[in-house]
What does this fold into?
Amino acid sequence: MRMTTSDEALAHAAANGDGEAFSALLDRHYDRLFGLCFRLTGHRAEAEDLTQDICAALPAKLSSYKAKSRVSTWLYRVAVNAAHDRRRRRATYARHSEGWGDWETGRQAEIAEAADKTDWLHTAMAQLNDDLRDTLALVLDDVTHSEAAQILGVSEGTISWRISEAKKKLRAFKAQEEAQ
Amino acid sequence: MTSDTSHNRDNNLNDLKAAMQTATPLADATRRTENFRLAQKNFANLQESRDPARLTSEPPKQGVIKGVRHMLHTLSGKGGLTVTTALVACGFLFLTPQGQDLLRPTGGLIGQAPVTEIDLGTPTSGNSAVQAAPVAADTSGTVTEIAPTNAIGATESDLRAEADMITDDLSAVQAAPADMAEAESFASEIAPSAPLALMAPQAGPAPAGRVQATGGLMRMAPAQDAAAPSAPDTEAFANADQNPLKIVSDEPVSTFSIDVDTASYSVIRQSLNAGQLPPPDAVRVEEMINYFPYDYAAPDLGDAPFQPTVTVMQTPWNADTQLLHIGIQGTLPALDDRPPLNLVFLIDTSGSMADANKLPLLIQSFRLMLDELRPEDQVAIVEYAGSSGLVLPATAASERSTILNALQSLGAGGSTNGQGGLEQAYAVAATMAEDGEVSRILLATDGDFNVGLSGTTELTDFIAKKRDTGTYLSVLGFGRGNLDDATMQALAQNGNGIAAYIDTLNEAQKVLVDQLSGALFPIAGDVKVQVEFNPTQIAEYRLIGYETRALRREDFNNDAVDAGELGAGHSVTAIYEITPVGSPAQLSDPLRYSGADTATQSAAADELAFLRLRWKAPGEDDSQLLETPVLQSDTAPGTEAQFAVAIAGFGQLLKGDSYLGDWGWDQAIALAGDNRGVDEFGYRNEAVRMMRLAQSLSDQ
It folds into this structure.
């Protein structure tokens, strides 16, 4: 029965204290949530930790869910905010991030297979700044520009601009790569 | 722009998308289950934390009027009067301009009161106050839950935003109670909770965690971010109630485990140097006394690995009592043929370690220690933050530059997964261990372990299990602010190691260089002390310090019960204050019908007490026993015992002990000053300086 209930109805029930609805909702979205966390951080362990943060706080956040937006949009927003907080906290310290930023040091522990592809991806992502990376993390996950705008709290125009900016950077990167 | 380039551009993005899809790993199944459980637990807690706010057991859907009627029904007489008075008072607050004025500045009251109670009422849609209510309840609920796990999810900014929303909504209600009926019902909903005492338990637990309640705003303090000036102190200290005076005829036997930790003294010094008296809970007198090296008589070769020296002396703070001073000196084996060492540095690199007195000091400290190691020793480094990782696999200590580079590469960032780090450190230690070698994990941290399965009991159980593998665990504390002294103590005690607190490079020099052999090479394990007092001689006794080390009388002979380790060359001191029979200082009256006379054995009549020590040789399971009677001595106490007593006085003054009478700072300073002895490293001079500092601070 739960499977046919809409996300929105589940979120509502959960906000009103229905534990089963909450579990069903989390179950539905967990994997995508984790995927997004990985795209946001570029680091598996970091993504696991971030997902944990989100899970821990999610019950309290349910009340901030407004019926007007889709649950996935709201959930992504929670995730992006949590990622920002994590990043901000860390930015105060000497090491900026152990994710996309300094892939070289974090590489050893990563999965060996598809190493070349991933390596290229990391190098490519490392060309971009946090904003562009966040935007790409969403857009590459088939989130529409307008939803991405809602999630990141910027205008749709900004999203489009960021995407074209990211494309520019990638093109330059590719050119540089081919020149080598 | 040609179509070719635009095609290329999209290609890049598509490539990226494809690569991203391949790279994105599947969520880890165990973590998934854990996270699920965490989320469900938080969810359940949230529901629970809402519930106690309700005064009736009926569900919130019922009408307000019914609730009020029910309440008036059950409460009669005095209760009813109180409630109706409260109703009127609330009506006044909300419905009159004066009341409004009263309300406005008191954000705290209004911020809490409606918050927990509103969801009693009928949540009419469009009533923003009602909508806000669960948010606020959630905030306090989550916060209590989040505190222990330190999940950062309920992030500062979000919480603040939510809290802002509440206050906004509330001010709207205050400013415009346009609809009289609505306002009235609002007031009556508050009424049941009006006595603030009812609110208190609800609001109480939240600030106890990492949370500050500022007015109506709940703010989650950034626990990781020690730099934030408003971060609340989240230190936890291990301490138990002070040892009470015991009556010999009731309880003739006193049993405790030795304690060679020194953390308490360094924490006190750090506080005093920062211009503050240390919190009384941070004061553990035995750790203060045992911070200092003493020149007690060393054991003869071939005997037990340590030698007890017992002195009976006049109590400086009480003319009618005596002090029984027990000094235990460990032997210092020839260090030239010491076994090779396997050291695993387990280093906390969570974000909060970035302060100058944490990670940088730690790295410097370990550099100092490296010089003391020998080529055959091995070093490995494991770091733990959000995830734990092996920074340096087992490396011979002679490869100095490799080790130094690995140390230098450590950077702070992320949360703290102590459990994961410990598991990995033990695993690494297991790979390094060979017969005849000593393996020890040196855990360096500034605070608690708060990701994963990290209740103190779970951790200590884990360590207690690992202890049997022969790997020792010592804990070095760094920095202040969220120093979890209680966990440190628990870990070191269960891991058969020492807990030290490193506040300066000097302290690092003391612990890791000057006393390295004592810190790293145990000569006796599970050392227990038992003193039996003779009721014909001693009426009352009091053990000074060792509160957290008390053992049951029967545990003394039980080899399965863990106790403290004694390191090479370490000394341990314990002091009892004893009241001789018939002394005017006796606080209790003697029993009229005690069988003291018959119990007396003529042979032992002049013994004050009987001292028993149990210990195990390192790595062995069976304990050995050493016994010696304590006789009244006429010789004057030496400087070593006198100095220990002065430090015991120092500790008791810091704790605000009532047994000291008029004896105060001046006397303590004089006693310590006169008994500084050789003081090769200047520790005792420093102690006198600290006492002076404490005196001026306590006079303020």
